[in-house]
Every structure is written in structure tokens, then in C-alpha cells.
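stage 2 :: seqdesign
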């Protein structure tokens, strides 16, 4: 049996990334895939990109990874962009949209946000039609002979697993900016990698505590923009745009 860790949405939070990577190492996991958004929000986008390049076997592009490579005028985006440098920005530009692979007879597809775009957001409470559309073959994903049996994604910072109509949709949550629980999140999928023969396959969501106050101190030390909103999200696990 092969074990794959699927991480996403690190957002420059290195204490959270360290905690996740330590947990992955202890579980004897064979490969690590990253579903994007290494950069932005937190203080150390450059370190996050370097760590992911070094430690992950596969990386797809997130919305922040895409946006940060474009011309920016917004102060916050410029601050994060300037920390990355030319070579990292070029790396982010080259990242693929999605990846397909077989796992114990199931075709698994991974992307950042949706089957259409890194910017189209799908929540677990969206309509059945919208959630089932995540399994569609599109111009962005390519048009293989078969639609996926399992789809995993990131983007919404809200981990879940849903099964319906013989298909499995799962969100891996966020490493560095979780907005459901105040713990870093990733998914682990286990089965026979690259096998089209039906066999045992499982998915689980893993939650890992990390030093939130250290992450906050690092952001304060860097005099990061939008600091108060970032601190609120880390300490509460709630999106800054939500009202009580």
C-alpha cells in the first residue's frame, strides 16, 4: 500500500508547514502532493515556495500563485510579490493546473479550486449540481477518456469528505490558514498507486496543532501588511470577512 499526503494553502506560514511535515514524516508517507497557494497572507512566501519545491513530489497552481505572478498595484500583493524574486515567480508561472493518477482502480484528480479555474470557489454546502461538476473534464483539466472517481482540492481552507453517486469529493483544508479549526490540515490517501485494478483505497483528514503564536510573532517581526486580520484568522479559525 502507498500513502500520499496532500497539502494545500500554506500561505507563508512556516511553523504550520513544519508541523505538517513532521507529522507526515512520522507516518511513513511515500509521496507529498501540494495543491497550491504557497504564497500570500502569511509572512514567508519565499520560504514556503522553497520548501515545497524541495519536499513535494508534485505541485499544482493556486489562485494566489497565479495572481502573484501578474503586474500588481495593490500594496499587500506587492509586499508578498517582492519577497519572492524572479526565479520563484517563474516557477509559479510554470505550475500545472491539475493532475490525474490511478489509486487502487480509482481515477483521482487533484486541482486547487475547481474543474474550471483556480479562482472559482466551491464550498461543501454549494448545490449538488456545482459539486458534481467538479468531476467534469474541462478545457482546464484536459479531456481524458474517463472522468475521475475521486476529486481532491484546496482553496476554501475548510476540510471535508463527501460521497455521492459513486464519487468522492474531498477538500484537504489549509496548512497555514485553516478557517474551520485552529489546527493545520492535510489529507492522506492510501492505496495502490498507479494501479487500475480495484482494491482498497482510503482517505482521511489529518489535523495537526502548531505554534500559532510563533506564526504571529514572525508576521509581526516582518511588519506584514493586513497583520490584524491575519492574526484574527489564526487565533479564531474564522475568515476575516465573516460577521458574528
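stage 2 :: out
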Amino acid at each position: 500500500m502507498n500513502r500520499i499526503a496532500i497539502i494545500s494553502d500554506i500561505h507563508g506560514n512556516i511553523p504550520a508547514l513544519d508541523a505538517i511535515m513532521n507529522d507526515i514524516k512520522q507516518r511513513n508517507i511515500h509521496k507529498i502532493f501540494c495543491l497550491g497557494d504557497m504564497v500570500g497572507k502569511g509572512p514567508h512566501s519565499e520560504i514556503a515556495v522553497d520548501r515545497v519545491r524541495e519536499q513535494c513530489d508534485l505541485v499544482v497552481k493556486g489562485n494566489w500563485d497565479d495572481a502573484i505572478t501578474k503586474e500588481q498595484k495593490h500594496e499587500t500583493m506587492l509586499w508578498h510579490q517582492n519577497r519572492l524574486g524572479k526565479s520563484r515567480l517563474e516557477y509559479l508561472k510554470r505550475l500545472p493546473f491539475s493532475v490525474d493518477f490511478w489509486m487502487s482502480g480509482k481515477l483521482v484528480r487533484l486541482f486547487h479550486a475547481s474543474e474550471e479555474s483556480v479562482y472559482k470557489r466551491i464550498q461543501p454546502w454549494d448545490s449538488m449540481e456545482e459539486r458534481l461538476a467538479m468531476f467534469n473534464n474541462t478545457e482546464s483539466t484536459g479531456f481524458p477518456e474517463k472522468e475521475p472517481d475521486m476529486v481532491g482540492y484546496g482553496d476554501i481552507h475548510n476540510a471535508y469528505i463527501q460521497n455521492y453517486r459513486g464519487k468522492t469529493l474531498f477538500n484537504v483544508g489549509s496548512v497555514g490558514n485553516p478557517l474551520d479549526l485552529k489546527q493545520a490540515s492535510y489529507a492522506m490517501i492510501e492505496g495502490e498507486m498507479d494501479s487500475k485494478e480495484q482494491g482498497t483505497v482510503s482517505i482521511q483528514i489529518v489535523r495537526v496543532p502548531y505554534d500559532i503564536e510563533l506564526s504571529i510573532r514572525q508576521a509581526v517581526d516582518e511588519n506584514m501588511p493586513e497583520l490584524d486580520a491575519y492574526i484574527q484568522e489564526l487565533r479564531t479559525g474564522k475568515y476575516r470577512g465573516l460577521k458574528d
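stage 3 :: structure notes
- The helical segments are 14-26, 45-55, 63-67, 75-94, 128-132, 212-221, 227-236.
- Residues 195 and 238 are 39 Å apart (CA to CA).
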